[in-house]
């Protein structure tokens, strides 16, 4: 039996989303920009999906632009967001624990002559809003901080960061990468006070290849992809209607069960922590607020070896962000974790489909790994 516990990397597509994509591919397959019947049918489906994702996020449909993924949304928010404000200043604030989609966008901004301030996180990976206040300058034009850290599950208080900006009278735009927080935490753009929010479909049981960027009404960003007039002229390229339809259905289902699903994942996380502490001596567990991400470590053991041991039992976890492809975690380094602990770190990601049996299988396997594998 398979025990998939790497849902922070990607999720299994739910049957309803898969069915929505299949119907769009086989039946509603017209180009939504075409004016004849098949095109109008596709446009209607596109509009319905946009309303569904917007309702899940808590914004107006017109504030939501579909992208190919969370990384594109992050790139667009930082590069075009900074450009839109460049006449007012060239200072940007982010952190040392952002996803590479933000980190590399920040590096690109530096190459373009912007000044970047990288805030240090606390010992869990969250960023203190007071650090934003301390770093804020009159020429600060953009702040980009992730809502839920994708490796540790730490939650940064974006609403408090927004208050810091307002109280300081700052002109800065506020962007948050909410890819790991969307449909895990209960928030809206209004509750966060964010101008730009990145989300992704494949973290909520939709297919890969679809994401969205929330752009606050009245905020104009230069298109990141140029070409046709799709997405009201904001993002060129024929819309990926099957993926969008699936995203809409996955978002609708996730929104309906948001609180119950979050409670279910939090309970599994708590159970796993308790059982690991009892069954695996010396395991180190990082306590964070997100309901679905658990970072643990067996110092003295290699993450890759542990993962291979687990995979042999059809248990799937990761060592850090899947996007890093084996590179050492910059997040765990930034929070000051001991190198031996980093080298033995595992990230466990829960979804609403996980069960107590999954958690117990993981605990038993790590117990056995500790008794079987050579300690370094």
Provide a descriptive summary of the structure in words.
There is one protein chain. With 376 residues, the protein is α/β, with parallel strands linked by helices. Helix content is 41%, strand content 14%. It contains 13 helices and twelve strands. The chain has a seven-stranded mixed β-sheet with strand order 2-8-7-6-5-3-4, sandwiched between helices. A three-stranded antiparallel β-sheet has the order 9-10-12. A two-stranded parallel ribbon has the order 1-11. A hairpin with a 6-residue loop joins strand 9 and strand 10. The protein is globular.
Describe, in short, the structure shown.
The chain is of the alpha/beta class and 376 residues long.
Overall mean pLDDT: 96
Structural class of the secondary elements?
alpha/beta
Distance between the termini: 30 Å
DSSP strand (E) fraction? 5-15%
Give the C-level CATH assignment of the largest domain.
Alpha Beta
The quaternary state of the protein chains shown equals: single chain
CATH homologous superfamily designation of the largest domain: Type I PLP-dependent aspartate aminotransferase-like (Major domain)
What are the low-pLDDT stretches, counting only 5+ consecutive residues below 50?
A: none
Shape, please?
Answer: globular
Sheet having the most strands: 7 strands, mixed
In spatial order, strands of the major sheet run 2-8-7-6-5-3-4
Q: What are the secondary-structure elements, in order, as H or E? A: EHHEHEHEHEHEHEEHHEEHEHHEH
What CATH architecture label of the largest domain applies? 3-Layer(aba) Sandwich
Please give the number of β-strands.
Answer: 12
Indicate how many domains the architecture comprises.
2
CATH topology of the largest domain: Aspartate Aminotransferase, domain 2
Number of helices: 13
Q: Report the helical percentage.
A: 40-55%
The Cα radius of gyration reads 21 Å
